[in-house]
Amino acid sequence: xxxxxxxxxxxxxxxxxxxxxxxxxxxxxxxxxxxxxxxxxxxxxxxxxxxxxxxxxxxxxxxxxxxxxxxxxxxxxxxxxxxxxxxxxxxxxxxxxxxxxxxxxxxxxxxxxxxxxxxxxxxxxxxxxxxxxxxxxxxxxxxxxxxxxxxxxxxxxxxxxxxxxxxxxxxxxxxxxxxxxxxxxxxxxxxxxxxxxxxxxxxxxxxxxxxxxxxxxxxxxxxxxxxxxxxxxxxxxxxxxxxxxxxxxxxxxxxxxxxxxxxxxxxxxxxxxxxxxxxxxxxxxxxxxxxxxxxxxxxxxxxxxxxxxxxxxxxxxxxxxxxxxxxxxxxxxxxxxxxxxxxxxxxxxxxxxxxxxxxxxxxxxxxxxxxxxxxxxxxxxxxxxxxxxxxxxxxxxxxxxxxxxxxxxxxxxxxxxxxxxxxxxxx
Length: 427
Hints:
Layout: H1 22-39, E1 44-52, E2 55-62, H2 70-73, H3 81-93, H4 102-112, E3 117-120, H5 129-141, E4 144-157, H6 165-187, E5 195-199, E6 203-208, H7 213-236, E7 245-257, E8 260-261, E9 264-265, E10 270-272, H8 274-284, E11 291-294, E12 297-301, E13 310-314, H9 315-323, E14 333-334, E15 337-346, E16 360-364, E17 370-382, E18 388-390, H10 406-410, E19 421-424
Parallel strand pairs: 7-11
Antiparallel strand pairs: 1-2, 2-3, 4-6, 4-7, 5-6, 7-10, 8-9, 11-17, 12-13, 14-15, 15-17, 16-17, 16-19, 17-18
């Protein structure tokens, strides 16, 4: 599985680069300036690169170059067999490291009929792993990256458009604080969820920069703490300054890119793809306060130990496996209250866990497209406060016989558009 490089161009100005000589630091700055010029405000993207005796060579193409292979990149079936093969080749290339050995690089250039771009550096490049990792991160920053599997969250503020401007600003600020507080509390437990986010206008997409199976599990823990902090703050707040949110958690594929800020690509990335589309459709049909979990199959670590082996798990077993790590969250203080325990579970026919059958639901959006989801409940016990119960009870959701506009009957809080629906999925 792909592992994100720890280093980025921003690291050039951090003391982490103390092991890199001043000469090579200047060399890297020269290279970044050159790559930025070839990128030219997003007119071009960089596909891959290699080291030669004078510096580096890169495959630089117009930003619309990848549109020639859009069918393959969108998981469609192109009619032209060569386009299909090249499209799959490109997606594999932009999903991994961008550095290639020179023979592989030259073969790629011939295959795609691209003339390599040469960047001559002031001094020869020392091929230390640290330096090569930084250059690879540079190239990705001026490109588009395909991520096959990553956990992503979507927090959506209920009735945001009906709030007054000050209330909207306060609600976004409150949710942002809950994200920062959850990160800080986990960090004190030696769990670093190096997350990034983009606003949706009335909420946030949130994902971790790491894409390992362990990172997926840690983002799930992060979600629980965010929801806990929001719930405690909501209970204590007066007025409409703390948001009521609905939440989606899903694991899937997406493309990642960097937008322009001024004359440079930003340090923060943006994502779009199957996982964000699925989350948006989930949230569109979620009830206020509801937590939806997507339907996925991913590898999970068997323990919290480094080097633990991986096993395949569906959504239900992913949540169960995550529950075994909840003891880590005990004692964390959120909004002035200490967490005694957090228990999250997928709801079933007769209630919580203990052997009951977990129910899977099929939701249909306004485009007539269906997907499976699970409903999640979260029980939070604090040492001094009252227990907090998050999510929607299973009894409020449609049963197996409900079809069509089932949720309009089960809960009027959902969208009233007749083409949208939720029903119990046939397993």
